[in-house]
Amino acid sequence: MDNKQLIASELAKVLTSLDQEAILNLLEQPKSSDLGDIAFPAFSLAKIERKAPQAIASDLAQKIDSSAFEKVVATGPYLNFFLDKSKISNQVIQEVIKEGSNYGQQDQGQGENITIDLSSPNIAKPFSVGHLRSTVIGDALSNIFRKMGYNTIKINHLGDWGKQFGLLMVAYKKWGDQKAVEANPIDELLKLYVRINEEIKNDPELDEEGRQWFKKLEDGDPEATELWQWFRDESLVEFNRIYDQLGVQFDSLNGEAFYNDKMDEGVQILEDKGLLKESKGAQLVELDDYNLPPALIKKSDGATLYITRDIATAMYRARTYNFVKNVYVVGQEQSNHFRQLKAVLKEMGFDWSDDMIHVDFGLVTKNKQKLSTRKGNIILLEPTIQEAITRAKNQIEEKNPDLENKEEVAHAVGVGAIKFYDLKTDRRNGYDFDLEAMVSFEGETGPYIQYAYARIQSILRKANFQPDPAVDYSLQDPESWEIIKLLQDFPRVIKRASDNFEPSVVAKYAISLAQAFNRFYAHTRILDESPERDSRLALSYSTALVLKEALRLLGVDAPEKM
Ligand code: ARG
């Protein structure tokens, strides 16, 4: 039984005016652990029983059966419970040992599907830090949902359609060079795209040409299709290099183009339900009732839009995956788009529109300035990842020059550092992209946690420790107790992260656990001969196991040696 439940059931035996559920909801954590582990505040009883809360608390302290606890003490208006540290520490450690990496696994999801729209960069455009955030957050959420018993489908909804491809074709045919594109696809294609947008200003005819080429593409013209395919393939080669570095995989690469021939059904429903209004030749859905601007579904020339494709996409996902949740990990700047999308689908009569969640996130800055290609304040992802790995390697050289697989470890630390820094931030907040802070071994960083993990592994190797389910691993000291409470909390932490679509809950937890272990380590000679030696090793073992699992949920590797 969970600690709070134990307390609530004991309290319920001596309290007539509140039921167990109500008591459970009142339980809180004392401000300091010297005061106890869990507190019952007597304020709300004061009104019911017409007595001072202090009197109620001391009265309860007399009546309650305290044999299941270390002690139960009334302190002012609170009844403070001190849990039985010896008993609970052994229980928790044995449970972690027994479950192994399965510890914290839950069945809330019952194997139901959650679709996760993540990463979703645009073909022929650079992979931005926003796409990095989406990739890293989406991947972590997928791991967290799986730990809650859901099945996840990670969909990279590539931005591979739109009028810009027509313009790009015109630019390529005029100024492009196949070899240059092959050598540096996104760079070259972006240059072409920027150039044509410049030249359009003097030569509006180019815009019309672009429109025609896009029309050709939409009509399946072989030359246009071949060029489009080529741009897409070349861009993907580049994106895949980044995904390889990050160690992220997808279940589907169905992007915008996939929905070209799937939009009619949605538009037809809108029409049948009388939801389409005409305005200057364009078709739109009014969303006044939702306090939103109208959603433009078709332009006056009949062209479809981003949202038109997203309507088809959502319908396809509902049908194909029968999701319990359809999650979109996309930056805050698209909030209105997703509100409109949800509202339109609601109007269309799809109840599952309630299960669509825009998991939004804030902007990344560099040197506290907004990123801007124009002002040269940009983050080029591949060189940046490389730089993180190099920095990690330099620190490893310094700390442990004899380490065997330095390259591999440097990769895990460098990439882990970038991911962890992103994930520890409440996702709605932005952050400043500061490589030095990210890769630091001190502070609230990925390397700090990885280092704590590797330190434990080294201790366990020295002791040649093997956990034994028959041994009693009880501990009583305050440093161990802080760790025990955290270990016990892990399943709830995962649930909270899942319910709030917030990987930072897991990241912050991992920081607390690593810090608690380091305090224990500073205080205790773990390897010294002592009656508690085995318990201390078992506690270290369990801590390492949970640290590794928390990092895994965040998509961060934990090297055995560092
Ligand atoms: N490609 C878009 C962008 O880079 C993100 C797509 C998000 N997913 C979606 N289903 N709309 O801004």
Which short descriptors sum up this protein?
562 residues; alpha/beta; Gyrase A, domain 2; Isoleucyl-tRNA Synthetase, Domain 1; four-stranded parallel sheet; three-stranded antiparallel sheet; 21 helices; 13 strands; 9% strand; globular; binds arginine; Rossmann-like_a/b/a_fold; Arginine--tRNA ligase
Could you walk me through the main structural features you see in this protein, from its secondary elements to its overall organization?
The chain starts with a helix and ends in a 9-residue tail after the last helix. The chain is globular and about 90 Å long. Helices cover 54% and strands 9% of the residues. With 562 residues, it is an alpha/beta fold. Helix 5 (85-99) crosses helix 21 (533-553) and helix 18 (446-463) crosses helix 20. The mean pLDDT is 95. The strands form four sheets. Strands 5-4-9-10 form a four-stranded parallel beta sheet, sandwiched between helices. A three-stranded antiparallel beta sheet has the order 1-3-2, covered by helices on one side. Among the domains are: 3-83, 2-Layer Sandwich (Gyrase A, domain 2), CATH 3.30.1360; 162-242, no CATH class; 381-553, Isoleucyl-tRNA Synthetase, Domain 1 (Orthogonal Bundle). It has helices at 3-14, 20-26, 43-49, 53-63, 85-99, 129-147, 164-175, 178-183, 185-200, 205-218, 222-246, 264-272, 306-321, 335-347, 381-399, 406-424, 435-439, 446-463, 478-499, 504-523, 533-553; strands spanning 38-41, 71-75, 78-82, 113-117, 151-155, 276-279, 282-285, 295-298, 325-329, 356-359, 364-366, 369-370, 431-432. The longest helix has 25 residues, at 222-246. The protein is built from 21 helices and 13 strands. Residues 117, 120-122, 157, 159, 310, 313, 328, 330 line the site of arginine.
